[in-house]
Amino acid sequence: MDREYYKSHTMSWGTLGTVRPFSGFQPQRDVIQIQKAMEKKDAAPLVRILTNRNNAQRQHIAKIYKDTTQQNLIAVLKKVLSGDLEALMLVLMMPPLQHEAYRLQQAMAGLGTDEETLLEILCTRSGKELRDISAAYKEMCKKDLEKEAKGETSGDFAKLIVSLINKEDVAGFVQKDIESLLASLNEKKADAAPWIDILTSRDLTHLNKVLMGLELESGHMVIPALEKKFSGDIRLGLTVLVECIQNPDAYLAKRLTGMKAPIVQGIMVSHSEEDLLSIRVAFLKMTGTSLYTTLQVGHQYAQKTHLGNNKHYGKPQA
């Protein structure tokens, strides 16, 4: 974490998230204020409260709201809000695992598949997290995530997606893995199988050693080599996976540079309590402009949310 980008003396370094548990949390008071805001159809208090509470506190608020009013908070929010702000508030109210499952479901919904959102989630989560997300997907959608993914993809890309869903850490030998990947690159038609097998079944420390060793022995950077040897969805899948192994913060920051509302919203909500500060650092290094400033300038909906600039951390430097 590069502290030079964050000069505020009020910033807390105990977490890389931008949303923390709200100190002095009083859910009953929050519910009263939310009720008043609903009656006036005033979105400002809703935004102020819900973006300055962590997810566990939001769930507590929803429970007390239901106990107090006999109404579902999410259903009431739908009546009062609209557009991007409604979408944001609704995903903020989802438990984290359900939110990731929802994003996967949306990536596969309708005509066509959003391959990169699938890859973003599957490549940046651990095997344990993905098992929990798969369980949440089954509970929410009444469908099996692996079967759904198989139905939406094909060929080597489908094999990669399935392997990512079932990601595990299997012991391996660095040099042997380097040799397997190097042999694939040296073939006239590169074989995706060793890449899929190795990159989805080793821990990150092992994989970074493999990728660095491969670059030294081949004399080429891994991603350009993959882009030259593969095509289509499997090229996208392998390059995203390598990017996420080498520097997940930089990969997510690159995704944010496109400033597409669903992508920005998905990443910020998913990472706001985990590592959004380090993604912001990567964004600033990549673009020369802070994520906070970019969102203010580029998106009306971003001006209404404090996820990237929670008051516990002070205003980030541009």
Provide a descriptive summary of the structure in words.
66% of the residues lie in helices and 0% in strands. The chain is mainly alpha-helical. The chain folds into three domains: 3-93 and 250-313, Annexin (Annexin V, domain 1, Orthogonal Bundle); 96-165, Annexin V, domain 1 (Orthogonal Bundle), CATH 1.10.220; 174-246, Annexin V, domain 1, CATH 1.10.220.10. Helix 1 packs across helix 3 (55-69). The longest helix is centred in the N-terminal third of the chain and has 15 residues, at 55-69. It is elongated, with a radius of gyration of 21 Å.
Topology:
Elements: H1 27-40, H2 43-50, H3 55-69, H4 73-80, H5 83-92, H6 96-108, H7 115-124, H8 127-141, H9 145-152, H10 155-165, H11 174-186, H12 193-199, H13 204-218, H14 222-229, H15 232-246, H16 248-257, H17 261-271, H18 276-287, H19 291-298
Helix pairs in contact: 1-2, 1-3, 6-7, 6-8, 7-15, 9-10, 10-15, 11-13, 14-15, 15-16, 16-18
Outline of the structure:
The chain is mainly α. It has three domains: about 5-95 and about 250-315, Orthogonal Bundle (Annexin V, domain 1), CATH 1.10.220; about 95-165, Orthogonal Bundle (Annexin V, domain 1), CATH 1.10.220; about 175-245, Annexin (Annexin V, domain 1, Orthogonal Bundle).
First-last Cα distance: 17 Å
Query: What class would the helix/strand composition place it in?
Result: mainly alpha
Strand content: under 5%
Number of strands: 0
Question: Mean pLDDT across all residues, rounded?
Answer: 89
Output the number of helix runs: 19
CATH superfamily of the largest domain: Annexin
* CATH architecture annotation of the largest domain: Orthogonal Bundle
Largest sheet: none
The value of Rg in angstroms is 21 Å
Q: CATH top level of the largest domain?
A: Mainly Alpha
